[in-house]
Amino acid sequence: MDIRYSTGKEAFKRMTTEELRKEFLITDIFRPDNVSGVYSHIDRIVTMGAMPVKKKLNLAMNINAMADFGVDYYLQRRELGIINIGGDGLVEADGVTYDIVSLDGLYLPMGTKEVLFSSKDSSKPAKFYMNSTPAHHAFPAKHIVFADAKHVKAGSTELSNARVINQYIHPDVLDTCQLSMGLTQLEVGSVWNTMPAHTHERRMEVYFYFDIPSDQTLFHFMGEPQQTRHVAVHNEQAVINPSWSIHSGVGTSNYTFIWSMCGENRTYTDMDWVKTEDLR
Fold it and tell me: Of 62, 105, 232, 280, which sits with the fewest C-beta atoms within 10 Å of its C-beta?
């Protein structure tokens, strides 16, 4: 478990490229037959990836719940959101098996003791991207097939940001304690996400970028609106964004990203917008 400690506004202004990447960028999310984990002290969100190839992976065998979280098992006081970006796979949760094909999602509540991951075809392994947050109540588990997500069109071709926001773990789809997750797909020819930019002091956010061709890249912008910095991001990497930071990106081609939020509320529209001309 890689542990990251939160960085304040003043320290952020003085950070070098290497320091920014070490604190906020998450790489190597998918490791064959392993579960990765990065624990951020920003709202105590955990970003994980599971890539079962030849083995069935047991979450409990890869996460030391007692040492890292002070509980008997990982989800004793946490909830978990999962979106599969790889080949078709299976998730077994306390004896219930969920058929999680590519771009399907799954919500598992606080109190889930055993979570197992497997792929249907080892030549096309599943890639389970996950976020976990503290929880106080056990809501029902829910399998969210891609068709059942809430699909919202946004942006325009003229502004190079035409996209579809697919809301998976969202108040309009299901109840959770604080976790929200969704997947945004940019259309061919569109490269900007979340511009005009915004902050939301009441929630932090993690952006996970994928479907970036190997010879392309993406620049993720973060920081206070008048103190912006960027992080160069490549395929299947994520960026941790504090609540006071903008979170916006532009790619050298179109791409897809998963956004995950947690904090004081789950109101998706609770944003503090920043005029583009005011960015510095």
Answer: 280
**Contact residues for 140 (Cβ-Cβ < 8 A; gap 6+):** 109, 174, 175
Interatomic CA distance for residues 124 and 239, integer angstroms: 26
Low-confidence ranges of the chain (pLDDT < 70): none
Structure token pair of residue 149? 């997500």
Q: Which residues pair with 82 in a beta bridge?
A: 106, 130
Question: pLDDT value at position 68?
Answer: 84
In sequence order, what DSSP letters do the residues of 191-205 get, joined into one string?
Answer: -EES-S-EE-TTEEE
Is there a contact between 115 and 96 (Cβ–Cβ < 8 Å)? Answer: no
Query: Is residue 84 within 8 Å of 182, Cβ to Cβ?
Result: no
> What is the per-residue pLDDT across 22-45, written as a single tens digit (0 to 9) for each?
999 999 999 999 999 999 999 999
